[in-house]
Design a protein that fits this description.
It is built from 17 helices and 13 strands. By secondary structure, it is an alpha/beta fold. Strands 2-10-9-8-7-3-4 form a 7-stranded mixed beta sheet, sandwiched between helices. Strands 1-12 form a two-stranded parallel ribbon. The termini are far apart. The chain has helices at residues 14-24, 49-59, 75-86, 91-94, 105-120, 135-142, 163-171, 195-208, 226-229, 231-238, 250-253, 273-285, 294-303, 306-337, 344-348, 360-370, 390-403, and strands at residues 31-32, 98-104, 125-130, 147-152, 154-155, 160-161, 178-182, 211-216, 243-248, 260-266, 353-355, 372-373, 379-381. The longest helix is centred in the last third of the chain and has 32 residues, at 306-337.
Length: 407
């Protein structure tokens, strides 16, 4: 008998299982509204032109090689990434209060940050929104956190933010709890607090001595404006908070399989950074030793070159603009069909995803009867919509809402 016979079966990750089912489906009009990746109006992946240009320049640069990076990664990348997040003129840089570390995309940044807090600060409690990105729970528990709490976030009846519930739950958080906050374009709901609500959240967290851990996966991708999308993080920093933030460049650069990410930490006393850097270096050494270069080098060259940076900003506006256009189109089609209920939330939400409010049975109908693939929580990726499938999707949703009985 194999010594591995004791290994138990594990359930598949829903979103990847859904993507596999979509790829295996031979139905000609199938639609993928599950995967969190940008698509053109032709339904194709988009390699950003500025990324193509930069890759060609890298390939033709005879000075480059494949030597190891330092354990904390490409410094020109991590510095530029932290400055993109906080603003290059933010006084925390001049004051020496910022540490940036290249990571294996946003997930790697979350894990490295969670490992650091668990091992070095002995953090035990973390809070995540209900709902949130499913991997938050696993990442933090696997890093050694003892207890996962949730705070209310989605108001299903009104299809918007349950701010009252959120505040009530955070009021009960023990001192020093780590609070996972979505910097912008909340996944999966697409609903963000207003600036006044962010200020109230900061007031509470300051009073309760809670640590903000921001997940910033969509900077620039939410509204098309980098500064607007990082406002919440910058506000907390301006208030004097010590902040941990995981950044991903998968969505806003289209570098999904290059795993380009950054962990940004802002501390109140610059003298502590030497020890923090040393401990993070040890965590990296025991995990992956040092990160890959290619994706980070692309991002670094774009962020550090004014012309390339301007081109990239244009690409961001194009992507976010198409998403906004598709939101409006879906809402208009559903209203034209007279689909019961209100669909205003589709356009009031921002970013890649929309939390539709469809029931599990309606989702099952869409997947099994209409070959429209979306997860059980009824979150759809707006990127999967285009001018060729919008009518089909709207009619299918209308059919699901009007014909699928809950009992």
């Amino acid at each position: 008998m194999s010594r591995f016979a004791c290994v138990e079966a594990a359930p598949p990750v829903e979103i990847f299982a859904l993507n596999k089912a979509y790829k295996e489906d031979t139905f000609p009009d199938k639609v993928d509204l599950g995967i969190g990746a940008y698509r053109t109006d032709e339904g194709k992946p988009w390699v950003l032109p500025v990324v193509k240009k930069t890759e060609k320049a890298i390939a033709n640069d005879e000075t480059l090689n494949h030597e190891y990076l330092g354990q904390l990664g490409l410094e020109s990348f991590s510095q530029a990434a932290s400055k993109m997040l906080l603003g290059a003129d933010n006084p925390v840089f001049k004051d020496g209060k910022v540490l940036g570390v290249q990571t294996l995309s946003g997930t790697g940044a979350l894990r490295l940050g969670a490992d650091f807090l668990s091992h070095c600060l002995k953090s035990k409690d973390f809070y995540m929104s209900a709902p949130t990105w499913p991997n938050h729970r696993k990442v933090f528990l696997d890093a050694g956190f003892a207890t996962c709490h949730t705070y209310r976030y989605w108001n299903a009846a009104e299809r918007n933010l349950d701010f009252k519930g959120m505040i009530e739950d955070l009021e009960n958080a023990p001192e020093d709890s780590v609070i996972i906050l979505h910097a912008c374009a909340h996944n999966p709901t697409g609903v963000d607090p207003t600036r006044d609500q962010w200020k109230e959240i900061a007031d509470l967290m300051e009073r309760k001595k809670l640590l903000p851990f921001f997940d910033c996966a969509y900077q620039g991708f939410a509204t098309g404006d980098l500064v607007t999308d990082s406002w919440a993080v910058c506000y907390f920093v301006s208030r004097g908070f010590e902040v941990v933030c995981a950044q991903s460049f998968a969505k806003n650069f289209g570098l999904y399989n290059e795993r380009a990410g950054n962990l940004t930490m802002v501390v109140s006393d610059p003298s502590v950074l030497t020890n923090c850097r040393a401990q993070i270096t040890l965590l990296v050494r025991g995990n992956y030793s040092n990160p890959p270069c290619h994706g980070a080098l692309i991002v670094s060259k774009v962020l550090n070159d004014s012309q390339l940076f301007s081109e990239w900003q244009g690409h961001i506006k194009e992507m976010s603009g198409r998403i906004i256009k598709m939101r409006a189109a879906l809402k208009a089609k559903l209203e034209e069909l007279g689909t019961p209920g209100t669909w205003d939330h589709i356009v009031s939400q921002i970013g890649m995803f929309s939390y539709t409010g469809l029931s599990p049975k309606q989702v099952k109908f869409l997947v099994e009867q209409r070959h429209i693939y979306l997860p059980k929580d009824a979150r759809i990726s707006i990127c999967g919509l285009n001018s060729k499938n919008i009518d089909y999707v709207a009619k299918a949703i209308h059919e699901a809402v009007t014909t699928v009985k809950e009992n």
